[in-house]
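Subject: sequence -> structure tokens, single chain

Hey, anyone have a minute? Need the predicted structure for the following. Not urgent.
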Amino acid sequence: MDILTGSFFMYLKMIMGTLKTELIQMWPDLIQKSKDGGVDVIETYVFWNLHEPVRGQYNFEGRGDLVGFVKAVAAAGLYVHLRIGPYACAEWNYGGFPLWLHFIPGVKFRTDNEPFKEEMKRFTAKIVDLMKQENLYASQGGPIILSQIENEYGNVDIHYGPAGKSYINWAASMATSLDTGVPWVMCKQVNAPDPIINACNGFYCDQFTPNSNNKPKMWTENYSGWFLAFGGVVPYRPVEDLAFAVARFFHRGGTFQNYYMYHGGTNFGRTTGGPFISTSYDYDAPIDEYGIIRQPKWGHLKDLHKAIKLCEEALIATDPTISSPGPNLETAVYKTGAVCAAFLANTGTTDSTVTFNGNSYQLPGWSVSILPDCRSVILNTAKINSVSMTSSFTTEFLKEVGSLESSSLRWSWISEPVGISKADAFSKYGLHEQINTTADRSDYLWYSLSIVDEDNAGAQPVLHIKSLGHALHAFINGKLAGSGTGKSGRAKVKVDIPITLVAGKNTIDLLSLTVGLQNYGAFYDRVGAGITGPVILKGLKNGSTVDLSSQQWTYQVGLQGEDLGLSSGSVGQWNSQSTLPTNQPLTWYKTKFVAPSGSNPVAIDFTGMGKGEAWVNGQSIGRYWPTYIASKSGCTNSCNYRGSYSSSKCLKNCGKPSQTLYHVPRSWLRSDSNILVLFEENGGDPTKISFTTKQTESVCSHVSESHPPPIDSWNSDTESGRNIGPVLSLDCPYPNQVISSIKFASFGTPHGTCGNFNQGRCNSNKALPIVQKACIGSSSCNIGVSVNTFGNPCQGVTKSLAVEAACT
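Reply:
Had a minute. Here:
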């Protein structure tokens, strides 16, 4: 079909954002906040391993309710881009593929392989049919306007040779044969065959060109930040740079732009991939992990979306005329008849001036100015004119919850046996790869071996172990002797552990564990895990070395506690009659707690624990690992948004745990008694953990006299737009809140950031009472920023208004 005609192309012109699908109770609020931020389309992956965990057995319930999610988006008046894949990547376990796929005879992933193609077609058709049955495609009057097949295959297709090219052609043909009535896209696939639209992913896509003049310029993933790995520092992306990238894309003819992520959320359970991807998937997104708007990113992008939409009539009518009036300067004009819109860009890192249409415009370095009428600047991407917010976690909570800390008698425990404890254990010669052995039914695999050696009693040899990853613990005669851990990008583990042998029988128990399976790369399904060896005893009394690798090992998949269902807290012989064991490996802990009151988001602070997994009322909140400390280097106190961004440019949290706070959805909590269960792998003290709620401390805004007027006041009447000055706006973040106090207000030359504003030498004494009168008792307020309101405390100086308010 010709997608460049009719109203459908209008949909492609809209801004969109990605939601990594969350718990169903959170969907309406997340979707509404996305809509309020100017998003028109919600993009979501379809995770094959979530929806078909067992071959032929489907899950579309709860958070797997794909139809319900699409309908929730439609109910909010938004559209959907359904990224079926079914390969997703997404830092998701195994890239979204189910493990049973790996065991189909003769299967080879993502190539011209009949067993794989048969399964991929079956699942893709299943999803398409499910959507068709509910009339959810736009061709049926529904909200789905786009679907995606495959995902970033162009990054790896060279490794698959000719079979990769034929596979892509097959995937395109298979998808279009399903007759959805809406276009299909392939991201990062320069050779996407017609009619599939090839799209761009990256931090910048303004220079991207589709592989046909008949295809629109589309951006499937504009990274709002970057993901966090256990052991890694926290990356973030300045909103000025993100806005610059968006404006540049539309400046140069872009038609459809998506944020990855607009809301990242939480990787509950064992859904993280990588390996070593953290449980938090916050991604520095405009809506944070807990569903709270992140300012000023959300607000500035909202203003940007409004500014671009004011240009829409011109954008959809014609292609831009692009010219360069000077070094690092570029103008783009969309003009048809009396309709005109322009973008003025400074791609250098220093401020500059551009003359356009006979007028002079100041352009900060690394910024774009948007002129919906080709005359008036309605927004510059480097000038933030939106509310900012500071929020933090508070460690104060109800006494009922505080009792967790005050008394170890509130805890009960069960020790996980070291080594083989289950009836389904089995023996094999040699060391076997973990994923093929466990099929990812558990993170854990025991390797056990007994040796009898009278000659080396009292010897202290070294146990040399090599593993494909991701971590391991070695026990000698039931006692922990040593451990080893890989890290993101280098999962393999090699350790030399001094041990002591006793006379007679010695038992070596090796616990190998995964931290999310590989999710990216050519042939990533062939990347194994586990202790594949060699395992060698070195430095025996006679100086000899013994290779244990080929001997008969006994294997146990998973933990005894997993089979017993200890994570529910409702089964098992829990011990609470003696001293609580702390800092002991392989220990299950259980306690009851009363949820923090109110409606603010809840998290558990796992400071004091080592590594493990946690469950609240039987629901897994994911892997915790607060002892994995980030590198001490690479962070800076501030990050200059000017210049090209990369995932290693703006970093924070150096020298600290990668993640200490773990999201507990309110919908998982009961008002009275709740059960918390931990499996502690390394050793920790559960009496040190605490519950905390995320509360907004302050809402702030800082607006200059030189800012453009508020976008909502702009219209095609340029004079009208010019007569309205800048306005400072404050909005409380939660329903039923009002502004209770003004913590800071200064008109003049205030400086600092939200939560740390300070008066400058120039200051109007009228600012505080005026702001208090306008705002206290209201959920939102607007104040004109001008000397007409506050007087003129200093002549010849550009002044601004900075306000910090508290909402209750």
